[in-house]
Amino acid sequence: MLIEGLHYLTTPVPRAQRTLGYLRESVLLMSRSRRCRAAWADHLDAARSAIRQSCADLDRRRTAVVLGSGLLDDVPLAHLAQCFERVILVDMVHLWPARWAAHRYANVALQVSDLSGCVKWLRGEGERCADPLSVFDRRDIDFVVSANCLSQLPILPLDWFESRNRPPPDELGHSIVAGHLEGLSRLQTRVCLIADTEQVTDNREGQLVERSDLLHGIVLPEPDRSWIWEIAPFGEVERHRRERHRVQAHLDWRP
Ligand SMILES: C[S@@+](CC[C@H](N)C(=O)[O-])C[C@H]1O[C@@H](n2cnc3c(N)ncnc32)[C@H](O)[C@@H]1O
To answer: Which of the residues 63, 157, 181, 189 could staple to 86 if both were Cys, CB 3.0 to 4.6 A apart?
Structure first.
């Protein structure tokens, strides 16, 4: 709790990241990732390996961009920093551990960007951004990773409406997920998409308790790789239940 409070108080973030809950979510994610280190290890290895393979055959290696870089747990940062002239880590919030990791490399930069396109709109500062990824459609970018952030993008925008007892616009979650996938498809570069698609809750008897779609009705094509991420082992959320996510990796995203 103390550590969480320190991060909450000392992380340099714009005001919106606090008021809309992005900082709180990042700190909670960090705490859970530390508690669940063993349960998450295979998932993180699989994600890092997928990213390494996705960029292995690229001829040009100028800039790599990691969308949803977060804690960098699933990002092979040392490998990317070595293989590319420049690496840009993009997230709403960069907590201290990610800042310190990035500062070890002269060619790694942090960028704060809203990948959902909703933040300014929710703050009453204009319309929803139709294509938040268009800023990454640059000739010097040779590799883009969407690092397990797809299912996260609609969560806080939908919470914003729920906390105000207001119905969200029709299909908001669906359109945020679809918008991210379409934005990735428009990029003229190698794209590695890693995304969790489904949550399965089961009990200690192995019985299925609940299954939920994390992508608001969007079904991804057959992945190159898929695996199970034990995101909440028994005892993390409930004593006799655990939550597992199906994760897909698309090493060259072209739907
Ligand atoms: C499950 S985490 C991804 C894990 C991360 N790659 C890591 O290794 O820690 C999802 C990430 O998406 C980020 N995120 C959620 N909504 C976002 C938004 N609208 N714009 C940018 N990043 C966002 C969160 O801050 C979080 O770091």
So the answer is: 63
CA 205 to ligand 1 centroid distance, Å: 33
pLDDT tens-digit series, residues 122-153: 999 999 999 999 999 999 999 999 999 999 99
Whole-angstrom distance, CA of residue 110 vs CA of residue 92 = 10
Residue 219, in any domain of the structure:
yes
**Nearest alpha carbon to residue 55 among 128, 144, 130, 121:** 144
pLDDT value at position 13? Answer: 87
Which domain range does residue 130 map to?
41-250
- The residue nearest atom 27 of ligand 1, judged by CA position, is 70
The list of the chain residues with pLDDT below 70 reads: none
Question: Cα(72) to centroid of ligand 1, in Å?
Answer: 10
Q: Judge whether 32 lies within some domain.
A: no
